[in-house]
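Service request form, structural biology core

Requester: graduate student, group of Dr. S.
Request type: structure prediction, single chain
Budget code: on file
Notes: please return the result as C-alpha cells.

Sequence provided:
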Amino acid sequence: MNQQNTVKQAFLKTLPVMAGYVVLGTGFGILLRNAGYGVLWAFAMSLLIYAGSMQYVGVSLLTGGASIITTAMTTFMVNARHLFYSISMVDRYKDTGKFKPYMIFGLTDETYSLLCDGSTPEGADPNLYRFLVTAFNQSYWVTGSVLGSLLGTVLPFSTAGIEFSMTALFIASFTGQWLAADDHIPALTGLLSTLLCLVIFGPGRFLIPAMLLFTLILTLLRGRREAA
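Core staff response, request fulfilled:
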C-alpha cells in the first residue's frame, strides 16, 4: 500500500472521531471566547495542551485565577486515566522512531480506542498509519476549537448537554470494535469492572479504581494465556 492509500485509510478510520471532536472542540472554543480569551488562545491550547476534558476545566482555572499547584493537581487527576491505558501501547510504540514523541503526546481516549486493537490496513506502514490517525484526530480538535472561538463572537450558543457527544463517540467506537473482534473478553471485563466500581465508589470516584481493576484482570488473563 502506497502512502496515499495509507493516508486515505487513516482518514476513513478517524471519521467517527471527527464528528465528535469538531462538535466538542467548537463548544470549547465558544466557552473560551465567552471567558474573554480569543482565537489564538483556543488554537494554542488545542495545539499544545490537547487534553479534551482538561481544556474545558482549564477555562474555569483561567477565569478563577487558580494557582500553579492547583492547576497541576487538577490536571493530574483529570488525566490520570492515561497512565493506565497507555501501558498497553508501549510495545507498539517502542520502534516508531521519529513518530514516537508526537504519538505519545497525541494519545487521547479516542485515538487509543482506534488503535488499541493493533490492527492496521494490509500493506500499510504501521507506524505511519498510527501517526496519521493521531494527527488527523488532533487536527479535528484544533479545527473545532478555532471554529468555536470565531463563532462565539457572532452566534449565541448553549453548551448544555454538549458533553454527551463524547459519550456517544465512545459508544460508537465500542460498538464498532465489538462487531469486528472475535474475542469479547476485554470488552466485557471493562464493562463489568466499570459497573462494579460505579456501584462501590459512586459516580464521582469510580474511574481510577475501575481502570486499576480492569488493568489487573487483563494482566492476569494475559499471564495465564501465555503460560498455557
